[in-house]
């Protein structure tokens, strides 16, 4: 059986599925609160701003990836800026994504502990999720794309149904004025959204294996647009149903939104059961993406044939990272900090590469496989 | 015929060696001596220990000594005396006054006298022995070095009946039998195309079962045939008792619970599969044909879907899919809702369910496990019972035992309903091996549900789906056509699109010839009627 | 070889962690061994009941809560008494067919705060309590007037409590509701719940569950309200009106017809109230409202907000008391319409005046100002009480318009 990574087989549709399902993840649960804190009823507008910024921040990555269609980021970055700066950037990225994985696992375990399994130690929940991730991240990138493509409809469709069901209680007034009364922290709100969307960096791993790499830019736009539409819908529905002031006091507004949703007047109560199911799925797809980014980069730096053993061995490290924050507030503060740093990296690094590739116009990609 | 005492004495005194060891390894023994007695002695020394070997001496044309050697149990005796002995004992008119060299006699006999359809000359000992075992008659002629091998095989077989494991409402009532020739005739009768290729060769050292690989040249992807043939050539084993053995040797992922090769008893299904671009493998002595490659979607599709109209077929297919999913997750969902997340039930129902469970001594998890295991035992038991008792027992088992268990306070009525739904769901799956896979996977899900509730069920389901997504069957992803997406394939997987909507073969098989239907096949006869007589249809 | 080692190690890791799981399914709690609290009633308890404090959460009472004692009456579902399916008894245990015994268990405890009381409750009952099916919470008026802050805080933090729970204010002792056993329903709390929900469906009450209450409470431009209920006779529950709040304290209550007026002001559908009208030439007629529409406009005049309220009602003639007068022409319907409009306008103005006096803007005019005149809001309103003051002085113009189009099956 052929175990080496095949190339050129991921269709643009699958690429979009990968990026969308990676982005829609744990942030879905808590981000409306941040938006309300940023700009009251202007939350949706801040989200839109953040989405637009994310679109823009993915452009350098798609462009530079398109310029080197068959090579992975380690290789062409090495060509453009030299071996040691590449190693520096890549190691920082690896570390960052491992931290992000640990943080996501911790957030998920906390949420599950609160809502679904109060007496189960959150460590067990975290270990289960991590084992699942490790088992699934062992595969090559084609199987990885299958996973995302398959799960995407199961994430989007129930999500949409729950959201539409919650509109029953929506009040148009809550959304006005569109720009909010006291838009104090618009920029930090937009940055929060960008931080949630930075998993789209996975695109860098996928471009070398795409069947049509010239469509990378197109794919990146559409995937951010689609994931962004879902986020926009969530924040609009939450704001409309609860009102900005109430949301500022809620920890998990999306969960409450799902709880108050009902498909018909008297039937199908407590749709939050479906919500929990769908939500574990969305977190899982995000987790394998962030984990896979790190594994892929390490694999390419050390030129490993496949990263299966690596997937197993890094699990204890990620688990320990997930145990570090001591309480609820520390967790969210540290995740914010990591995402700010990550933003600089995931935007700045490809931008740097693109500018340099522009300068060094002669350096173009060869046809060697990544 | 010697008495048992004599047989016993001979056996005690004899050396018990297999035939192979009597032949010198590395050389091909030739039975090329012109002397009849030499040849007979050689053959006797190899095969003489079985008492059903018959040596029939006679004289060819009244002059030349000859002997026919065959195994009495596998030959057609009538054929032997009509087509071999009778014509040889009399000189045919055209040879009457000719002088024939003894060395050329086998050739002359073959071309002028013998009436058997299959015949050839042979000198290699191993091939002669094999052919005797397969039911051919070997003709040894005094004075001629070559021997003649004549096909006279006849094996008892049952008549063609309706296949037991795959009953359909609307479709042919023929199923494969155990004889390869009959099966091939059923297949060729349905696919009278010039391009149907059948390659036959034995596998298995002792059983030497003939295995036939069938495919349609010009439709099938050549790499698929390559892969199939290469895997078959790597099998080296003693016995191929049934097609199932071949399946286990050539499948991609032996450790997976899901079957990667489909087996069927129906010739019409096999013919349809060949037309789509698949390869069929048939084994002598097995009524099951193997169809490769297989995707998961095939396990809830039946032939009925295609012989009925598309709306009915689509709805029924969806019902089957729901039944399949039910049979996997219903008990796990029940356990997790009752024990971990009762907030998902409506309040009045929750209170009532609590009432229903009040007297039961076990937690929901244990109760479901006990009832499920009992159900599995019951199901296994009914397979082996004869028809009459089996039918009654299933009714007795479900109704009486279930009702009695509830009244005794042993389990709650809802559990019985849930388990019954699950069992019925698994029966609705047409493919037996896939249904077993899902039945098996139910239990780990129940364990996970009993430990972690809905979260555990979700983790279990994600694990199963990830496993499915990574399976491959002969290079085809197991979850095709859903992933990688192909609109063409989806039209025929979740629902059954109308025939005029699916003009192409499934793309995941990478067929050489993609189109199976004319582009302008009208949806209904009225369409072409109203469009006028000048419209020409492409062939 | 790399491959078997990594797979084997992963299996080992998973095996070790699954051994840990053998210590128990931590969250497994069978549904029949949970004490499902279906309804709660919260009353004030006189300090004399201090002795029954179970001291399950504290040794000595901190002085700030020493005199504050609440009595919690909880209705717990008893598994085994509520039959599964129509009428026939369940399995094992539980009196089947014993209709005199209620299928719920009513327990009373005292405590200083809500969670304190719940812990005392847990001391007294065997099964672990769970609030996942808590549907009704009844608070006595006395407690409502003192303030619901602490109760709401507990309910908000608890992940088991749903936002679709109903919080009701009762004018008599709340505990009485827990003993109400109407013949129509097996579980009393569910009867209460059904009553509230069905009146919402019939258009007799706005859908104001606790989630909506919390949302309204948080908004700066609106004040919250709750259903006000009472008991009539032994087993009959009456909706007495809306209890309106300011700052989580109850300020006043309305009459039942004023619920209809409120819903007309907000334009809520379906409409379910009927009006008894005296129309001079026709005598006493009764109309039933079918649909309501309303439009609220706010303007800023001289630096102060002013509102215009336009209500439109669709009604139907259901009863005419005087036999000798005929309602047989469009003009008579117009008379009815005029009378209906003027009655509704009067009631609306009365209600609004009263609300303005009590500074409780349950209609939510503030939200309209915030939405449409956001610059005014930003400059003038810095806390919620600012709007409450502005509201009390705001001129509101009410215009009511109604249409009576149908007269039923009798043609005069």
Q: Can you walk through the features of this model?
A:
The complex is a heterotrimer of chains A (370), B (539) and C (412). Chain A has 370 residues and is mostly helical. Chain A is 72% helix and 0% strand. Chain A is built from 16 helices and no strands. Mean pLDDT of chain A is 85; it is low at 1-5. Chain B is an alpha+beta fold. Chain B folds into three domains: 18-151, no CATH class; 180-306, no CATH class; 307-470, no CATH class. Chain B has helices spanning 4-13, 19-22, 36-47, 77-89, 105-113, 125-134, 180-190, 222-233, 243-250, 267-276, 304-307, 310-339, 347-356, 364-384, 387-407, 413-427, 432-452, 454-470, 487-490, 525-530, and strands spanning 53-60, 64-71, 119-122, 136-141, 147-151, 196-203, 209-216, 262-264, 279-283, 289-292, 472-473, 476-477. In chain B, the strands form three sheets. In chain B, strands 1-2-4-5-3 form a five-stranded antiparallel beta sheet, sandwiched between helices. Chain B has a five-stranded antiparallel beta sheet with strand order 6-7-9-10-8, sandwiched between helices. In chain B, strands 11-12 form a two-stranded antiparallel ribbon. In chain B, helix 14 crosses helix 16 (413-427). Chain B is elongated and about 105 Å long. By secondary structure, chain C is an alpha/beta fold. Chain C has two domains: 31-53 and 67-80 and 102-253, no CATH class; 258-406, GMP Synthetase, Chain A, domain 3. Chain C has eleven helices and 13 strands. In chain C, strands 1, 2, 3, 4, 5, 6, 7, 8 and 9 form a nine-stranded mixed beta sheet that branches. Chain C has a four-stranded mixed beta sheet with strand order 10-11-12-13, sandwiched between helices. The longest helix of chain C has 29 residues, at 330-358. Mean pLDDT of chain C is 83; it is low at 87-100. Chains in contact: A-B, A-C, B-C. The B-C interface holds B 338-340, 342-343, 347-348, 350-360, 363-365, 406-407, 409, 412-414, 450-453 and C 21, 25, 27-32, 34, 36, 38, 77, 79-85, 90-94, 103, 132-133, 135, 160, 162, 187, 190, 193.
